Amino acid sequence: MRTLDDLDVSAKRVLLRADLNVPLREEPGHGQSVADDARIKAALTTIEELRGRGASIVLVSHLGRPHDHEPDLSMQPVSQQISALTGARVTLAPAVVGPEVQSLVERLKPGEIVMLENVRYEPGEMKNDPDLARELANLADVYVNDAFGSAHRAHASTEGVAHLLPCAAGRLMQREVRALTEVLERPARPLVAVLGGAKVSDKIALVEHFLEIADSVLIGGAMSFPFLAAQGHAVGASPCAESDVDCARQVFAKSAEAHHNLELPEDLIVAERLSADAQRRTTATPDVPEGWRGLDIGPLTAGHYGRRIAQAGTVFWNGPMGAFECDPFALGTRVIAQALAGTSATTVAGGGETVQALRELGLESSVDHVSTGGGATLEFLQGLGLPGVRALSSTAAGGDRLDARRGAQNTVSPSPSGVLG
Q1: What is the pLDDT of residues 104-156, one digit of tens each?
Q2: Per-residue confidence at 310, pLDDT binned at 50, 70, 90?
Q3: Which residues are CB-contacts of 362 (< 8 A; sequence separation ≥ 6)?
Q4: Are the C-beta atoms of 18 and 351 separated by less than 8 Å?
Q5: Annotated catalytic, 291?
Q6: Is 352 a known active-site residue?
Q7: Which domains are seen in the chain, by residue range?
Q8: Partners of 217 in the beta sheet?
Q9: What is the pLDDT at residue 257?
């Protein structure tokens, strides 16, 4: 995969695809502002390097899922936050593409930044429309993709345009791919995967893949109940769709060694309802009383999982161990987070709730790599090729620049998913 080390950006306009899909909040009397700028800060390394190397930047990102040109999903608050963090003037373009945008970017000087409007305002973005990709390519001399969180989407701004310009991965993309590749291909042993969260069906492929490559797969959170039900345990009123139980049975059936390295809770913290003042107790077995809900792994399980992490060479964590947002049910998640922070193993964590838990506990900086990817992270770790990553490695990437400018009839079509080489 080409990186910024392989790309000459001096005195060139760089089309930089970043993942700036941040939450917004309404400020009374002042419009919208950025509620959490973590993703913006993650993009600053690449932005500042490009500026320092004499490039001007045409910044492009999506924000939310607009059905049209919804004003509430404008990039304006994002551009203002980038300006505040960098001290640079960031000009918001009136659209994504078009004559006005073209004129604006052609006046850019080294170090200056123009932010395009929400790229999903253009209906051709999610269709990977060749014409939109070509119009985006016409705005710049080179293309840098730093949006790992969108790399699993074959969109015009993440995949299509890479075939029309000299291209490379930004520093965030480079770090993500390197860290996750280490987990998949070169982990220090033992490799321990800690998987929690909700639906088994959403992560069954991830569980199955880790059963093939990991030394231990530790299951917690709501997704443990279908596995427990598949083994004949009572789950009470815990979330446990029959379709998820079927998925759990498939996991056990597909892997002859599943019972050797797939570990489930030994005890649970259960309650009558999800409330800090609800009656609760710790079970001696992984069975939930009728009418009660399992809301966290128990202390025996938390201690066991913590010891597994302490003995590991590499740990990947995705998904909380319980309803950690409610303090009586935060024990399991807290123990896992503290174990990751205290181990000498290589540690990688990903997923919105996982990152939230680490931040709330003040432990995010204690983990070697916290992935920004979400769905992209899970697909990468399943061994699937990500279109946005593959496009940066393709020998066809960065096609004839003159053809792109002239609107030649070359087409840009989505790449099929496949296994990374």
Answers
A1: 999 999 999 999 999 999 999 999 999 999 999 999 999 999 999 999 999 99
A2: very high
A3: none
A4: no
A5: no
A6: yes
A7: 4-170+386-406 (3.40.50.1260), 189-344 (3.40.50.1260)
A8: 193, 262
A9: 56
Q: For the chain, how long is the longest CA-to-CA vector?
A: 71
Say whether pLDDT at 277 is over 50.
Answer: yes
Report in angstroms the alpha-carbon separations of 216 from 209, 302, 333. Answer: 12, 15, 18
Q: Which residues pair with 74 in a beta bridge?
A: none
At position 159, the amino acid (one-letter code) is E
Catalytic annotation, pick one of 2, 13, 17, 39: 39
Catalytic status, residue 373: no
Give the active site residue among 199, 249, 359, 401: 199
User: pTM of this prediction?
Assistant: 0.90
In this structure, which amino acid lies at residue 126? M
- Condensed to tens digits (0 to 9), the pLDDT of residues 238-253 reads 999 999 999 999 888 8
Query: Do residues 35 and 22 lie in contact, with contact meaning Cβ atoms separated by under 8 Å?
Result: yes
Cis geometry, peptide bond prior to residue 416 (ω within 30 degrees of 0)? no
Identified catalytic residue from 303, 342, 375, 383: 375
154: left (phi over 0), alpha (psi -120 to 50) or beta: beta
Question: How many angstroms separate the CA atoms of 223 and 230, rounded?
Answer: 12
Tell me which of 52, 352, 407, 418 is the catalytic residue: 352
**For this structure, is 332 an active site residue?**
no
Q: What is the Cα–Cα distance from 44 to 122, expressed in whole angstroms?
A: 25
371-210-361-351 Cα dihedral, nearest 10 degrees: 40
Would you tell me how many other CB atoms lie within 10 Å of the CB of residue 122? 25
